[in-house]
Amino acid sequence: MSKIENGVALITGASSGIGLVTARALRRAGYRVFGTSRKPMPDTPDGVAMLVCDVTDDGSVQRTIDEILARAGRIDLLVNNAGIGLLGAAEESSEAQAKALFDVNFFGVLRMTNAILPVMRRQRKGRIINMSSILGLIPAPYNALYASTKHAIEGYSESLDHEVRTQGIRVVLVEPGVTRTSFEENLTRPDHPLPVYDTARANAEKLMRDVIRTGDAPEVVADMVVKAANAASPKRRYTAGKAAGQVRFIRRFLPESFVDKNLRKFSRLPA
C-alpha cells in the first residue's frame, strides 16, 4: 500500500503525547506526515518528518509551509494540535499571561490556518482539524483561561467551515476528554497567585492528576483524528472518548441546574 495515498498531512505540536501518537496514526493510515516541534527533533523511525515551527511566529509558520510545499508539493490535511495549559483561578493571571496563552492556543491556530488556506484553495481540496477539548463545551473551575481558548477555537472553527466549504475545504473539531499524557506536568502556573485560592488550586491540581491517570489513551484521540480526516462528509465535531461523549450529551440536553451541581461535585467544590 502506498504511504502517500491519502495525501500530505501537517500536524503541529507533534513532539510527544497526542500529537506524536496522531502523527504516527496518520502515517499508518496512508499519509505522508510532517510534524512540528519548537525545538529540532529527528524524524521518527516510522517516517514522520519533523520540522521546527513556532506557531506564535508568522515567519516560522510560513517557512514551515514553504518547506513542506518544496518537499511534497501540496498539503491536504492540517491538524492544529499545538497548545499549552494553564491552571489557576482566573484572577491569578495577568493580562500578559492570558495573552501569551491565547497566542499559542488560539492565534497559533489562526496563523497556521491563514497560511495554509491559500494552498488548499489552489488545490480545491483540503481539510483542517482543530484540536479542541471538552473544556470547549463546559465551564472549568481553575481552568477559566485555558477553557476560554478552547471555546474560542469552537466558535472560530464552526464559522470558518461555513466560509470555506464552497472552496473544497472543510474545517472540523476533535474534542478529547481527559487523556493520559504529560499535560499536567507541563502546565503553566499563574503569575500572580493569591493566597485565597491556594487550597482550591492545590485541590484542582490533584484532581487533574487523578483523572489523567485513569483517562483515555492518546490513541483514542488519534483514531478520531484519522476518522475525521478520512470522512467523505465530515461531521462538524468528533468527540474522542466515552467521558467526552457523556459530557457533550449532558451539556446539550440536561438542565443547567443539573450541570452546575454535578460540575461542582466533580470539581470537589462545595455546593
From TrEMBL:
<feature type="domain" description="Ketoreductase">
    <location>
        <begin position="7"/>
        <end position="177"/>
    </location>
</feature>
<dbReference type="InterPro" id="IPR036291">
    <property type="entry name" value="NAD(P)-bd_dom_sf"/>
</dbReference>
<comment type="similarity">
    <text>Belongs to the short-chain dehydrogenases/reductases (SDR) family.</text>
</comment>
<dbReference type="GO" id="GO:0016491">
    <property type="term" value="F:oxidoreductase activity"/>
</dbReference>
<dbReference type="InterPro" id="IPR002347">
    <property type="entry name" value="SDR_fam"/>
</dbReference>
<dbReference type="InterPro" id="IPR051911">
    <property type="entry name" value="SDR_oxidoreductase"/>
</dbReference>
<keyword id="KW-0560">Oxidoreductase</keyword>
<dbReference type="InterPro" id="IPR057326">
    <property type="entry name" value="KR_dom"/>
</dbReference>
<dbReference type="Pfam" id="PF00106">
    <property type="entry name" value="adh_short"/>
</dbReference>
<protein>
    <submittedName>
        <fullName>Oxidoreductase</fullName>
    </submittedName>
</protein>
